[in-house]
Amino acid sequence: MEFLLDSNFGLPVHERPLHDVLATAGITTSATNDLDALDRSVERHEPDVVYLPISDFHRLLARGDTHYRGFVIVTSKLTGRTNLPSVLVVRADDPARGIEELRGSSLGYINTSCSSSYFCPAILLSQRGENLADFFDLRPTAPWQGQIDAVTSGTVRATMVLEDVWRTTPANADLTKVIGRYDRAAGGVVVVRDGLDDDVAATLLDALLTWRPAPEALYGPFTPYRDQDLAPFFRDMARLPAGF
């Protein structure tokens, strides 16, 4: 059995105790930051277990592909909830007071699977009848604090980033300001294929729920996946224009 992971999330599957539990269950692991390759593998139903961005899971479901089901999902390390608010930030000395004042400006984002930096601004603009690609000059940046650093250095004018990330570094509140937010987003999700052996699933579930991330980790612990927790975010993503 194969467990395929988005390496950007930093789940330490090669460290104890996760490594020992997975090995005992006969689960091999592979990690990649090539999300196109990950998506192709998932579309071919190759891995048995996948840790992937929530947006990529939504894309599968939107196509009617139910080979995988939600298993566990990350939580906020500050609130413990599955909701991961994203904040729109600019430099503290920027005159903008809202997203509507940023037309034509550069927006830093991580990749087109990122719920916080890509889907959240797309949703905010869609609610105003605007399209992300037409409204912003999209520019890839280093992730998380790297996005904020790109704003403070003037590399990009704005970015949307996890509020947890923005709050983790106190200086961010002095150097930048929040001019918008989206509160319904979620983060990484572990999915399992339909028909996965019940004993293997139970062992994996226990291992993931008891694992505790390091204090500097991006996310808090996993919690069981529940459709109702994701329904508001999925509804907003479903309203986006074709191509998302």
Describe the structure.
Pfam families: Phosphonate-bd. It comes from Mycolicibacterium aurum. This is Phosphate/phosphite/phosphonate ABC transporters, periplasmic binding protein. Helix 1 links the parallel strand 1 (2-6) and strand 2. The protein starts with a strand and ends in a 6-residue tail after the last helix. With 244 residues, it is of the alpha/beta class. The protein contains ten helices and eleven strands. The chain folds into two domains: 2-80 and 186-238, Periplasmic binding protein-like II (D-Maltodextrin-Binding Protein, domain 2); 86-182, Periplasmic binding protein-like II (D-Maltodextrin-Binding Protein, domain 2, 3-Layer(aba) Sandwich), CATH 3.40.190. The relative contact order is 0.21. The model has no long low-confidence stretch (mean pLDDT 96). Strands 2-1-3-10-4-11 form a six-stranded mixed beta sheet, sandwiched between helices. A five-stranded mixed beta sheet has the order 7-6-8-5-9, with helices on both faces.
